[in-house]
Specification:
two-stranded parallel sheet; 47% helix
């Protein structure tokens, strides 16, 4: 079984979970970001951003994060999201 053939469905489920868990903001990154964002939007989520690259997400996070915000980063290792984690650690 190739997980790639289920990518759209699996990313859609991530968007559903974001809403189900009452996240305030969704930032989806990468080629399949539209599936995550689309599912969340379809369930009524208001604040959604899609980015094509990590650097876009980092810039966005630097602009919108406030003291005491909680951030969940979910990704496959292939997306190199460790770049985002490193950047988050350095946000003043």
């Amino acid at each position: 079984m190739n997980c790639g053939e289920f990518s759209k469905e699996l990313h859609h489920k991530v968007g559903e979970e974001v809403v189900r868990n009452k996240a305030d903001v969704l930032i989806a990154v990468g080629n399949d970001a539209e599936y995550i964002a689309g599912a969340a939007k379809g369930l009524g989520m208001q604040t959604i951003y899609t980015c094509t690259a990590n650097i876009e997400a980092i810039r966005l996070l630097k602009d919108i994060l406030k003291d005491n915000d909680a951030v969940l980063v979910k990704a496959a290792n292939g997306m190199k999201f460790s770049e985002i984690i490193k950047a988050l650690k350095n946000i003043d």
